[in-house]
Amino acid sequence: MKTKITFLCFLLLSLMSCLKDGGLYRNFQDFPENHQWKKSDAKSFDFTIDNDTQLYDITFKFSHVYDYQFNSVPIDFVMENPDGTKEKFSIDLKIKDPSGKQLADCSGDVCDLSYTLKEGVALSKGTYKITTSNSFKGSYLPNVIGVGLEVNAKK
């Protein structure tokens, strides 16, 4: 029990220190049941920009089971700006390099992959909403532990 509490305290302090370092927003949503990201299960992330004089990086987080069976996965995004306009875009998220080597940072059976969606962008003040879904051919994308989003001030 003491170990769990110590680990949780360490995790909380780590997150707080990251957010002090220019971090504005961080959210991760997991898929605990069978690690399946259903095609119909779009994930949304809302964040607010208060300082429009800075530049920001927006990073997508993708956690998967080690030795993922696909070399890449198709991911779709919709970014809704404070003025209501929407930007739609898709990526082919590379999981492995051409030689088959994992591109994610792996610890045990869990691999965490980061993909920069936008780098050094100026964002107007207001609330943004980024919704993501997968466009995998099947009804779900298997072996996905979770997805997340980070927004940080450009250093």
Instruction: Give the overall pLDDT as a whole number.
Output: 88
Strand content: over 45%
Q: Please, how many helices?
A: 1
Helical fraction equals 10-25%
The count of strands amounts to: 11
> Quick one: overall form?
globular
Q: Which fold name is given in CATH as the topology? A: Jelly Rolls
- Structural class, by secondary structure, is mainly beta
| H-E order | HEEEEEEEEEEE
Q: Note poorly predicted spans.
A: 1-20
Name of the CATH class: Mainly Beta
Number of domains: 1
What would you say this structure looks like, in words?
By secondary structure, the protein is mainly beta. The chain has one domain: Jelly Rolls (Sandwich), CATH 2.60.120. Helix content is about 10%, strand content about 55%. It is built from one helix and eleven strands; from the N terminus they run H-E-E-E-E-E-E-E-E-E-E-E. The chain has one helix spanning about 1-20; strands at about 25-30, 35-40, 45-50, 55-65, 70-80, 85-95, 105, 110-120, 125-135, 140, 145-155. A five-stranded antiparallel β-sheet has the order 1-11-4-8-7. Strand 7 and strand 8 form a beta hairpin. The longest helix has 19 residues, at about 1-20. The chain is globular and about 40 Å long.
How do the helices and strands line up, and which of them pair or pack?
Elements: H1 2-20, E1 23-30, E2 37-38, E3 43-49, E4 55-65, E5 72-80, E6 86-94, E7 105-107, E8 110-122, E9 126-134, E10 140-141, E11 144-153
Antiparallel strand pairs: 1-11, 2-10, 3-9, 4-8, 4-11, 5-6, 5-9, 7-8
